Amino acid sequence: MAKAKSPAFARIRAEVIRLVALIPEGKFTTYGSMAVYMNVMARHVAFVMSRLTDEESQALPWHRVVSADARLSSKMDAELRELQKSRLVFEGMSIDSKGFIEDADAHFHVVGIRRNIRWSELG
Length: 123
Description:
This protein is mostly helical. Helix content is 45%, strand content 3%.
């Protein structure tokens, strides 16, 4: 039997989904930027993103979240990476041959400044 996720994880997951939904078309953000805002590690954001349900993947602009250096993740499945690239290009971004978003500063979406959240203490 799989171990149930903690209430803190459920809140983190919900916040990742909420933040991804807020990224405007033509913009991107990074796992790390979201993590700083949420006061968690980037791998927590990546973990949630890698386990979106099919319904969530269809509803959310997941393609607007990339690695810290404005690069498409090299760890992502090649087909999924191509889908991400095509969606970003459709939204007006240029991606170089190594997977970096060109003119990244013009397209970067600032999530916000670090919040002092202790996820395990929320009621």
